[in-house]
Amino acid sequence: MAAPALVAGRTVDTDVHQALPDLRPFLSRQWRDRWLEVGLGTGTGYTNPRGVQRRDARPPNGGPAASDPLFVISDHLDRYQIDYAILTGPFVLPVGADPDYLTAVASAVNDATVEGWLGVSDRFRGSILINSDDPPAAAQEIRRLGGRPDMVQVLMASTTRQPCGQRPYRPIYEAAAEQGLAIALHPGAEGAGLAGPPTPVGWPSRYLEWHNILPLTAMAQLNSLVCEGVFVSFPTLRVVIVEGGLSWLPQLLWRMDKNYKALRDTAPWLTQLPSDYIKEHVRLTTQPVEEPDRPEYLVQTLTMMDAARTVMFSSDYPHWDNDNPRLLFRRLEPQLRARIMGDTAAELYGLQQPPRPEDLPSFSTAPADVVIGLSEAQE
Amino acid sequence: MTAHRVAALADVPADGGLLVTVNRLEIGLYRVGEQIKAWRNVCPHMAAPVCRGVVTGTRLPSEVYHYELGLDGQVLQCPWHGWEFDLLTGCHLAAGSAARLRGFPVEVRDGEVFVHTRT
To answer: Judging by DSSP bridges, how do beta strands A239-241 and A282-285 pair with one another?
Structure first.
């Protein structure tokens, strides 16, 4: 299939983590104290000894990295000529015991994003964080905010209590499809809270191993979404696999197609090859991009996965493992690079037009307001 | 090579480094033992501002399940991906990696630090 034509030449960063250090104003009183005392209350036990936030990305006001939207514009969007940033929040929600608390935290994150970020600049687009472990409540949250044009997707942890293509999660996809929103699966909660172990063989010993194997979750969920017929039931639904890497996809496409050809009658609702569903409905973000010894290997991998349709640039700013957009994909032919750096995302999120011209003040250098501890992202 | 006076020796801290600019080139100055070393503020991996990372020690290569701390004050840790560089040699401390920091000759004269660059 020929690569789609160059669309708009936008650069869209599909994974930027805004910090929301103080959720107190967005939590009702019955949850506020708990948030201050325990935050999410559950870690994975896997911690990066260097910390997850980049030290050099802290704003001059002394607040946490990516806590000042004006500094993010200057330090990241302007520096790398990025038109739009898709905000993916300070964390995703782990599988937990108290669905009402987690749903309240999700709403607080969303309201804080609307108030503190989406109103600041047209270059930001938001993700509606949900507690996917309570699908009816998650669907309600999607419908509460889905009408906002600046909210462009639903964000949930890659880790779920059971494979996310299965029946209990249908209300989430129904609401997202109805609202015209993509579903983004983001890692970070693998093994956290009440989730199963982060690998099928149990618990790795250290963060290095945990992080190496995060793509397992993405593979398992993609497999489930396709085989359970989610894209048959919701033909307009799009799923974004964030921060799961890329190079595993060709293998999965080939294996799914091979098995489908032999065993299609066990999922008779599928009317296309699994790889066709994935190429139509699924997008993968680039960071942390693989760095093979020979750069041409990555180019070959991108060809295998029809990257002009399936791959979208992401930086993961301001996290430790972020990619530098200036150095990415320099060996690709320009049209494919343009698809990856923004055109595919512009189509998905409706960002073909350039951002509105803005006359924004400079970022602040005055000391930040009281900074409240937060549950830090894990990945 | 051109010598540039970049700092007073006393301004290079015992812990951490001092970031200076020579012809728009950002260079980090570090004390390593009795020496002053000068490294370009660009990580060879992802072009991050490596000199804004912490100076620390590390766990040395060891037997399986043994841990041995060493190189205290001699390891620069990139603020992005955490790549560790030996401040004495500029070498990336990871087996199989040929990455290294770009360094500049340093001269200390009468309490002043000079860095030599091509321009």
So the answer is: parallel
Query: Are A109 and A89 contacting, i.e. CB atoms less than 8 angstroms apart?
Result: yes
B35: closest CA of chain A, how far (Å)? 26
Amino acid, res. A109: V
- One-letter identity of residue B45: H
Of A48, A54, A326, the CB nearest to B80: A54
- Its CATH architecture, for the domain B2-117, is 3-layer Sandwich (2.102)
Name the residue of chain A whose CA is nearest to B51's CA: A56
Tokens 């994150």 correspond to what residue? Answer: A109
ipTM of the complex: 0.86
CA–chain centroid gap for B11, Å, is 16
H/E element holding A102?
A: helix A99-113
Chain-chain contact of A56 with B48 (C-beta, under 8 angstroms): yes
Write out pLDDT tens, residues B15-67: 889 999 999 999 999 999 999 999 999 999 999 999 999 999 999 999 999 99
pLDDT, position A371: 54
Which residues of B are less than 8 Å from A55 in CB distance?
52-54, 79
The whole-angstrom distance between A51's CA and the closest CA on chain B is: 9
Out of A48, A55, A57, name the one closest to residue B53 (CB): A55
Domains and CATH numbers, chain A: 12-349 (3.20.20.140)
Q: Which residues of A touch B58 (CB under 8 A)?
A: none
Residue A211 has a CB neighbour count (10 Å cut-off) of 18
Distances (CA, A) of A268 to A68, A192, A263: 51, 35, 9
